[in-house]
Each structure stands twice: as structure tokens, then as C-alpha cells.
Design goal:
Helix content: 25-40%
Number of domains: 3
Strand content: 15-25%
Strand order of the largest sheet: 9-18-17-16-12-15
CATH superfamily of the largest domain: Chloramphenicol acetyltransferase-like domain
Structural class: alpha+beta
Largest sheet: 6 strands, mixed
CATH architecture of the largest domain: 2-Layer Sandwich
Order of helices and strands: EEEEEEEEHHHHHHEHHEEEEEEHEEEHH
Length: about 450
């Protein structure tokens, strides 16, 4: 008896997705609720579980196909069992040993066991074919052997961050060129399901190109960002902030904070609290435009930009203005982990009223972030570096950070944008203001 596997509900207003990857092959045994495929929607990746235990009888769609909610994508045979491993060739041709000379048993006529190298190669190829397109591209780019990397994703799967970390470690220790060459030779292109037949290898001087279809998430990001540029009257204002007080506070209390709350004290909590304080003085920064009406919010739901293997995502820290430093840090850390594993839900990424993007973690000195509609503003944080500044008539070195506030000029005036940024600057340079609401 075969049971249909249907596309599950993907969230409000989402009617279809793209089958990004099959996690099981036809003929493989599956357990009830075990993921057999990964779907990619406009916002998140969703795994499709098997409704019953059995064997995957057939796949009805190909990777890259668009599928609607409720569509049948596979069938599970409940009565079947996974095939047993093939018997050795000698046993198949002569199962009972009929006609065999007993004196020759175990001698030159005995079948030679498969070499360890061949077994390893086969296992490596099976492992490589389960990599996502982003991870395969990273493996080719950083020249690492994916079979030697321990995955940190769900069920031990490799993520792009795992590959990058392995590449950094490889720079320190060095990896034999032969192992890297073998890994690249075994690696299929992102559009291939199985390794291609051996062919002539390109010489080091050859110029190669690779065409990869944009994921649904990347297409949605591109569309939303371009719509924001076309619709909003976007403008960016800048300021810089002396991070000395925050760095000193973190250094003084980081051990006590982590011991009590079980989470490290980061910069994000300070900036979230500073933005919540500044939004009270400049509510238009936390507003949105709906038709010909401006909607003001008496709460601050902060969308925190997080880098994920498939692109930038912005999970929402709800009621951030009412949260403690520890609650903010724990929420952001949990979202960061989910983003790497691709387990963020649609509800966790919708409904923000203001966005904070920290490009400084990647080394950005300055940028003009794009607002996330229907929000009216986004704060861009950048890297901290010592620069000469004048304090009390003396030129001194201070850890400085550039801040950028991009805003919709249809809602926010320049005076309001500058005032908001100054309030954030004041709160960061004197964190006591965060405690006394000043």
C-alpha cells in the first residue's frame, strides 16, 4: 500500500515553494516523520516529513520544481522494506560452493575483498551528493574536502559556515594538494543530482563559469530591496559613536553576566535598548506607511539582520523595548542558530517595526542600508576601529564606530532622523542613560 506525501502548509499567504533537495532516494527506508525533502519558500526552508514508515517508492517532482501546497511529491510504500546490501559476486555465482575444489578455498580463486580506498571513495560520493548548492559552491571556492568536515547543521549536515571554518583551519595546518584535487574531482555541480562521468579535467589556466538558478529566498530579497528603492524616498544620515563606555561595561561585567544568565553580553543588546529609548523621542522612526496613513507603534519589534547560508534573513525580536539585556541576547542567539540550521519560521520573520543590521561583524567600515518595507528606517552598525579624536583639547585614540540611519523621507524629516541618531549616540557613549530612561 502506497501513501502520498503532500506539501505541508508553508505559512500565511504562502501558496507554493521550490523543492530544493531530496533528502532520501527511491528505495531507501524512511521512518514516520523523518524528513525526505527540503522545500524553499520566499522566506524560509521547510522540511517535508514522511507521514508513515516504509520505503520511498517514487519521487514525483524534480529538484528545482515549483510545487503548490497540498501537491503530491512522493509516495511511500508501507508494505515494502529496504533492499539488503548486494551479496559478494562469488556467492552470487556459486551460492552453495558446488563444483568448487576444497583445496582452492581461501587461495588464489577466493574473491579479493574490495579495497579500503574504493569503499571510502563510494562513501565520499554519497556524502557529497547530499550537500546543498550553497555548500557545494563553497567547497569549490575554498578547496576543502567535505568528507573531512563535521557538520553543525541539522542531522549533522554541512553548512556554508562549516566549510569556511574548515578552510581557515586548512590555512593554518595545510592540506595535501592530492586530497583537495580528489575532493574537487568527486564534487558535482550544484545542478547535478549524481556525479557526472569522468571527463577531461580543466588545466589550471582554464577560465570556467558556473550558472546557478537564484533561490526563491534570493529572488524575494532582490524583489523587496528593489521595490524599497523604487517606492520609498530613501535617504541616509551618518554619525559616529565612541564605544569606550560600552566596551568598558562589557569587560567589567561579562563574566558575571554570563554566569548569571548563561549568555554572553554583546553589543546588540546595548543598541537595541538605545534604539528603543530613542524611538520614544522620535516615534516616526518606528512607524510605517499604509496607503495615506502613518501607523505609529507603542512597541518596538526589532528585525535583526542575520546572515544565513542561503542569504540574509531578518527574524524579529518582539517587544524589545520591554526586554532585559539578557532576554535580548538570548533571543538573538537563538535566532542566529536557527538561521544557520534553516529552521526559522515565517512567523519569526514577519511583523518587525524597525531593523538593525550589523555589517561590522564582516568588517564593513561604512554602508547605506536599505529599509525593509513597510518599515520606515534601518540602523546600520559597522566595525569598531581606533581613530584619532579630540577630547579636552587633546588628540587621543578611541574605539569608534560609524552609524548609518537609512529612512523613508516621506514619513521622517531630516531633523527627526538626525535627532534619533544623536539619541542613540548619547545612550551608547553614556550607558547610564539606558537605566534612568534619559
Amino acid at each position: 500500500m502506497a501513501t502520498d506525501v503532500q506539501v505541508p502548509a508553508l505559512g500565511e499567504s504562502i501558496t507554493e515553494g521550490t523543492l530544493a533537495q531530496w533528502l532520501k532516494k527511491p528505495g531507501e527506508a524512511v521512518k514516520a516523520d523523518e524528513p525526505i525533502a527540503s522545500l524553499e519558500t520566499d522566506k524560509v526552508s521547510v522540511e517535508v516529513p514522511s507521514p508513515v514508515a516504509g520505503v520511498l517508492a517514487e519521487q514525483l517532482v524534480e529538484e528545482g520544481d515549483n510545487v503548490a501546497v497540498g501537491a503530491v511529491i512522493a509516495r511511500i510504500d508501507e508494505s515494502a522494506t529496504a533492499p539488503a546490501p548486494p551479496a559478494p559476486a562469488a556467492a552470487a555465482t556459486n551460492p552453495a560452493g558446488a563444483g568448487e575444489n576444497p583445496q582452492l578455498r581461501g587461495s588464489e580463486h577466493a574473491p579479493e575483498p574490495a579495497s579500503e580506498e574504493a569503499e571510502t571513495s563510494s562513501a565520499d560520493e554519497d556524502h557529497i551528493t547530499t550537500l546543498s548548492p550553497a555548500v557545494r559552491r563553497a567547497v569549490l571556492e575554498y578547496h576543502v574536502d567535505p568528507t573531512k568536515i563535521k557538520g553543525s547543521g541539522k542531522d549533522g549536515r554541512l553548512t556554508k559556515d562549516d566549510v569556511i571554518a574548515a578552510a581557515e583551519a586548512q590555512k593554518q595546518t595545510g592540506t595535501p594538494a592530492q586530497a583537495v584535487a580528489q575532493a574537487e574531482a568527486r564534487l558535482p555541480s550544484p545542478t547535478e543530482q549524481q556525479p557526472s562521468a569522468p571527463g577531461p579535467q580543466p588545466s589550471p589556466g582554464d577560465r570556467r563559469e558556473e550558472r546557478v538558478k537564484m533561490s526563491r529566498l534570493r529572488q524575494t530579497i532582490a524583489k523587496r530591496l528593489k521595490d524599497a528603492q523604487n517606492t520609498a524616498a530613501m535617504l541616509t544620515t551618518f554619525n559616529d559613536v565612541d564605544m569606550s563606555a560600552v566596551i568598558e561595561a562589557r569587560s567589567r561585567y561579562k563574566d558575571l553576566f554570563e554566569k548569571k544568565h548563561g549568555i554572553r553580553l554583546g553589543f546588540m543588546a546595548f543598541f537595541v535598548k538605545a534604539c528603543a529609548l530613542a524611538a520614544k523621542d522620535v516615534p516616526s522612526v518606528n512607524a510605517s506607511l499604509e496607503g495615506d496613513e502613518i501607523v505609529y507603534h507603542d512597541y518596538l519589534d526589532v528585525s535583526v539582520a542575520v546572515s544565513a547560508p542561503k542569504g540574509l534573513v531578518v527574524p524579529v525580536v518582539r517587544n524589545a523595548d520591554r526586554m532585559s539585556f539578557a532576554e535580548i541576547e538570548k533571543t538573538i542567539a537563538a535566532y542566529g542558530k536557527k538561521a544557520k540550521e534553516g529552521t526559522l519560521t515565517v512567523d519569526e520573520m514577519t511583523g518587525g517595526t524597525f531593523t538593525i543590521s550589523n555589517g561590522g561583524v564582516f568588517g564593513s567600515l561604512l554602508s547605506t542600508p536599505i529599509i525593509n518595507p513597510p518599515q520606515s528606517a534601518v540602523l546600520g552598525m559597522h566595525r569598531i576601529e581606533e581613530r584619532p579624536v579630540v577630547r579636552d583639547g587633546q588628540i587621543v585614540a578611541r574605539p569608534m564606530m560609524y552609524l548609518a540611519l537609512s529612512y523613508d523621507h516621506r514619513i521622517i524629516d531630516g531633523r527627526e532622523a538626525v535627532t534619533f541618531l544623536v539619541r542613540v549616540k548619547e545612550a551608547i557613549e553614556d550607558p547610564t542613560r539606558l537605566l534612568i530612561d534619559l
